[in-house]
Design a protein that fits this description.
It contains 7 helices and 7 strands; from the N terminus they run αβαβααββααβαββ. The protein is α/β, with parallel strands linked by helices and about 190 residues long. It has one domain: Rossmann fold (3-Layer(aba) Sandwich), CATH 3.40.50. The chain has a 7-stranded mixed sheet with strand order 3-2-1-4-5-7-6, sandwiched between helices. The protein binds S-adenosylmethionine (SAM).
Length: about 190
């Protein structure tokens, strides 16, 4: 994370291109969506990267799924803008916004069928506390609330912060109407039951 003046948004001053060996979550996610034959679904994606593969593959694979992504990196948002300009057929079903996920406001969120929380606990620090941002658990709860009954919430077990995330997930699982579906490659999949 960039050195930032206290009180400013805790953004990500970096650019993540597709590095499947290091971080396969987005590719595993696209594979899982296709293998599970998820169609006509609204998908929320935490941490688009600058490659935007989830939005692009979704637009190209005929699933009629749509993706709302969030990035905290200005550089990654810039490549989304370029993508949108150059490929309106992708932009039709793929929107990304710039912001800190810990500042989400549920009033602005649609009903969702699939939520990908791959980077839970990776980036939240005391810098987010300075402006009263949500916690990891609050983000998970909010997005669970916005997930339709039968929808999926997906975590990434190879995240460098998964040890911490696993504790949040264990509490979340006990208190939210969700059930574990199982693993797909590096992904841990839950389903909303109510
Ligand atoms: C290591 S990159 C991984 C990108 C992609 N999921 C992949 O696996 O290739 C982490 C992603 O999380 C995003 N990110 C970091 N902090 C964030 C925050 N507070 N809110 C939203 N997104 C954040 C970054 O912008 C970046 O897209």
């Amino acid at each position: 994370m960039a050195a930032q003046e206290s009180g400013k948004l805790h953004y990500w001053d970096a650019f993540w291109d597709l590095r499947v060996d290091e971080c396969p979550c987005d590719v595993h996610f696209c594979d899982w969506l296709e293998k599970t034959d998820i169609r006509n679904a609204s998908i929320f994606h935490f941490g688009t990267g600058g490659h935007h593969i989830v939005g692009i593959r979704t637009a190209e694979n005929g699933s009629n799924n749509c993706v709302l992504g969030i990035t905290a990196a200005p550089q990654e948002y810039e490549t989304f803008i370029q993508l949108a300009i150059e490929r309106p057929e992708v932009e039709k079903t793929y929107k990304t916004f710039f912001g800190d996920i810990y500042q989400l406001d549920k009033r602005l969120l649609p009903e969702l069928d699939v939520v990908a929380l791959f980077h839970l606990c990776e980036f939240r620090t005391e810098k987010n506390d300075l402006y009263g941002a949500l916690t990891d658990r609050q983000v998970a709860d909010m997005l669970t609330e916005k997930t339709r009954k039968g929808g999926y919430i997906v975590f990434y077990t190879k995240s460098f912060a998964f040890e911490t995330a696993a504790k949040v997930i264990a509490e979340w699982e006990k208190e939210q109407p969700v059930e574990k579906v199982g693993m797909y490659e590096s992904l841990l999949v839950y389903r909303k039951t109510k």
